[in-house]
Amino acid sequence: MRAGGALMLFLLLVLPAGAQKPFYESQLLFPPERWHNHGSCIVELPNGDLLVCWYNGSGERTADDVKVEGMRKRKGARTWSGRFLMADTIGFPDCNPCMFVDPQGRLWLMWVAIIANRWETALLRYQISDNPRGTGAPRWTHSDILILKPGDEFAQIVAKQCDEDEKRIDQILPPERREEGLAYLAERRKNAADKYFRRMGWMTRVHPFVLDGKRIIVPLYSDGFDFSIMAISDDGGKTWQASRPLVSFGGVQPSLVQKRDGTLVAYMRDNGPPPQRVMRSESRDGGMTWSPVVDDNIPNPGSGLEVIRLQNGHWVMVCNDTEQGRHRLAVLISDDEGKSWKWKRYLENDPPGAGSYSYPSVIQAKDGTLHVTYSWSQPGKGSCIKYAHFSEEWVLRGD
Fold this sequence. Notes:
Elements: H1 3-14, E1 24-28, E2 36-44, E3 50-57, E4 67-73, E5 84-87, E6 94-101, E7 107-114, E8 122-129, E9 142-145, H2 152-167, H3 169-172, H4 178-193, H5 195-199, E10 209-211, E11 215-222, E12 227-233, E13 241-242, E14 251-258, E15 264-270, E16 277-283, E17 294-299, E18 306-309, E19 315-319, E20 328-334, E21 343-349, E22 356-364, E23 370-378, E24 382-390, H6 392-397
Antiparallel strand pairs: 1-24, 2-3, 3-4, 4-5, 6-7, 7-8, 8-9, 10-11, 11-12, 12-13, 14-15, 15-16, 16-17, 18-19, 19-20, 20-21, 22-23, 23-24
Helix pairs in contact: 2-4
């Protein structure tokens, strides 16, 4: 038997029924450029098209020319379209876009307009397309602003956690940062009591989550508070309520996945003190209340991540698995709902300083394959968005 035939026989014997054969393909969606390109999100539309968005400009929050761009790959096409405009609040930076398709088949684009060039002045905006089919940018049929109103309970929860953190500040921070930490907690307590501050500055990052085909949960975070919260709607986005905050030292940009028993798990980027680890919290009431935020065992350098549940029940996480630097971008797979991550394969694996690969967005398409987009930059070359398409078996097989 020829070698190719032997490999095919092996794959037929070891792959479960309906599994994809191992494959991987990738491309830069456009040539690297001096402009900043960051924070992408990818979705599969109801008609099978792929749509990607990201923000582009001369900087981030301090650059008033930043806008949201997009590209489309028609179902069955081999190439992506050219770039097109998705959203632009003229004269203000538009950052951190995310997209999702709701139970009615409508496409949502959510992002933040930075009102005063500071992250804590973010205003959460969204647009809806009732019919996102076409050849370029979707035609938006509705737009609005999403403003959360965390109440007095928010302030009480934050104050209580600050009290507890003050008592254990020497366990959280090294001695030389003790006074800095106490001042940080005092500022956090004051801001939580300020009605305006607690309503502004909430930002998107990853895909919103549709729970049980009805409840929409939009994971949000605040650089002003340096922790996370959920915006929740049970009426298709007409009204929104705030969950209890996921108070922590730097647990931001939460990504949600659901266990078989219905429990929601939020995995978060670690912007806090060492050890630098992915942070985790759980909810057993549909995202309204959350367990204390704790460190998981996955390294994290203060960089965004995303996790999804596959059709077969496995979980996939895409993240920078380092404590410092974004030079490695890994795909992790768990078959026990996050208790362990037995398989890993790298989308990028360079020496420190050779490149930066971050802010992944991951989906599983209807055909079972995985699609990832992420920020790509290398010294002397510039930045762009990279796209990778592969099967779960490509990760399971390894090198």
